[in-house]
């Protein structure tokens, strides 16, 4: 005897919506590579570029061709570096690559032979007129970071030392740190190295965290690209395995069946609880 399993139906997770769904629903883009999104799948939004990746690739004009992945995931907005690659080069669009091997469009035309390519969601720019010549080390971006420009400003200089403050893109205080010591706050982690010429008060750096694609993918509380926050629920099944696809979602003001919600398999009980709390801030209440 053959056993048949009935899948989830469009909208079956909904208990009630606002104004028959007219206010509760939106149409969004599911990012290519997200796989099959089932009805009731909890989704996040890519508001920041993925944190980091190390790959092997080459560049011809504005096409980056990746032949191997050592770690991480490539995404739009990342800044890439490597032997022969123009400083500040950024990924602007996906080609055949969906985060791994394949092609990507970059913003600077150039030729670079196959090399190790490091991609980062954040990069730093020294303030114009800095006296000190210390350099910013690698910047790690975690889930708490905001997309946009952070400001690091030296406040108390000293010989081979110094203190600084970091302000977020919203202008709010993020944390205080020391030159030549590890800093970690507000979703950023880095070390500002001391240079041969000491910093003076007012020296600093702009730290830019690249914005994400704004597309949706399955929510995972452990992601670092913004999709660690649950923002919607897929109304019906769509297939985003190999290409972006439009999807109707429940984005606000609704009651939903907890038992009918679908989750990425990487989410554990704590992740799901956090996702439900995120949805509650949108007045999507699971019962």
CATH superfamily descriptor of the largest domain: Head decoration protein D
Overall, the morphology is globular
The average pLDDT score comes to 93
Helix content: under 10%
Strand order of the largest sheet: 2-20-18-4-17
Low-confidence stretches: none
- Can you tell me the number of structural domains? 3
Structure write-up:
This protein is mainly beta and 287 residues long. The chain is 5% helix and 46% strand. The relative contact order is 0.24.
In short:
With 287 residues, the chain is mainly beta.
What characteristics describe this protein?
287 residues, mainly beta, Virus Head Decoration Protein, Chain: A, 3 domains, 5-stranded antiparallel sheet, 1 helix
Layout of strands and helices, then pairs:
Layout: E1 14-17, E2 25-30, E3 35-37, E4 42-45, E5 52-72, E6 79-81, E7 91-94, E8 102-120, E9 122-126, E10 140-141, E11 148-158, E12 161-167, E13 173-178, E14 182-185, E15 188-191, E16 204-209, E17 216-218, E18 230-234, E19 238-240, E20 245-250, E21 254-256, H1 269-281, E22 284-286
Parallel strand pairs: 21-22
Antiparallel strand pairs: 1-21, 2-20, 3-19, 4-17, 4-18, 5-8, 6-8, 7-8, 9-16, 10-15, 11-12, 11-16, 12-13, 14-15, 18-20
